[in-house]
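# step 3/5: fold
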Amino acid sequence: MLLKNGHLIDPTTKTNEFMDIRIENGIITKIAKDLTSETGEEILDLSGLTIAPGLIDTHVHFRDPGLTYKEDIHTGSLAAAKGGFTSVICMANTKPTVDSVDTLSDILNRAKVENIHIYQTASVSYGLNGEKMTDFDALADAGACGFTDDGIPLTDAGFIKKAMEEAAKMDMPISLHEEDPALNEVNGVNKGVISKKMGIGGAPAISEDVMVARDVMLALDTGAKVDIQHISSGRSVDLVRYAKKRGAKVFAEATPHHFTLTEEDVLNYETMAKMNPPLRTEWDRTKIIEGLADGTIDMIATDHAPHSIEEKEREFTKAPSGIIGLETSLSLGITSLVKRGYLTMMQLLEKMTVNPAKLYNFDCGTLKEGAAADIVIFAPDEVIRLFPRLEVKWEHKVHERPVCKLPKQKLSGILMHYTYDSWQQWLDKAGQYTSIWAEDNFSKGKRVGKSAAFTHGIYGFIRAYFLQLGFLDGWAGLYSSLQHFFYTLLKYWKLYELQQKNK
């Protein structure tokens, strides 16, 4: 097979140009410009598409064995492939726990038939009880890629220090779920404004911070390769940055939900937004993005954690924590990080390919001749249209209205439209659009008096706040209605100014 005309981005080699790739029997045999096809060779034209190394997720829960009504190895592998992941690392909190060679070997043998690379961690402690350390040597010999009690925090500092020392001898990573249970009242929601509205306790950021502070210092002391999983607190980002500057072998993961959502979303999505650690404040979300941008946070991992619908439909305090993420991780990274200027595409892919490979000492995460063809192909600028563009004409220059002869259909569900990222962006657009509106309407003969400009502005507020029920949205409704007042006033005032200039 010959992949033609694709935009190759490879963080390992820093390749960022159009290249062709030849694949034979699942192996990359040639990477070069303008390769000529061979007789009978299948050609795949990738014009407009990006080619990158297959993505690696360091943190998934396939629920196999024991909880396969939620997910299993096969369905998990399909979800991973759908999202562009060719390698995943499964957590050990299954039933039974992956704390024996028999359980580990069973999983790895069944994973061999899937079309992606499935790696399996083993638990740090038997039964995830944080008391007796598993046989690291035996589990590593049987194929374990690392060690973690993810889902259950390790609270005994002496125990985790011994585990780090053992992992350091083997140059294998130890991954940690950082929440101190003694400081959490109710799991799954940040302790703060939202948990108070819900009438329940919560899990404060300090429960994560104290554990991260302890473990990054233990990492520095032991020389262990430590992965701080699903970081959610802004202060924890600062602690990781501090430890890295002093030479600690600390890696950190950020999930798409922690850099896109906040505790406010728990009110909208309820148990679907319940997770450990919980969604936190906008400040924390911003700090996580800062950590991704400056390299403090090395990896984007999904913490893909499926549950049944029946489980998620329970009341909040009784529903399990967890959210899926394999199929949406790359797209969320592009839309929320790359498109908004926080990361380049190269930097995003680095956190989803080469950095995870470094943590686990994998020989993947790059595209090179002689290597397996673990490849993801995607359209970073794909636009989903609701209608064929050439069949539609537009009325007006501002707030355009489509005019066509196509049949009309009502959309089901909610169309989310995020128009602006900041007040400054809104002000810039408001200035631009009101000028266009004023010029267009002046050319059509529309005229307005000085006092009428204010009247239109006031009516714009009344319409938005009262007639369109903006008051039901609280402060957000008030802000939006005030925007309507200012915008309406501005466009009519500009029309008035044009009249004065052209007398």
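# step 4/5: annotate
Residues 474-501 form the longest helix (28 residues).
# step 5/5: archive (pending)
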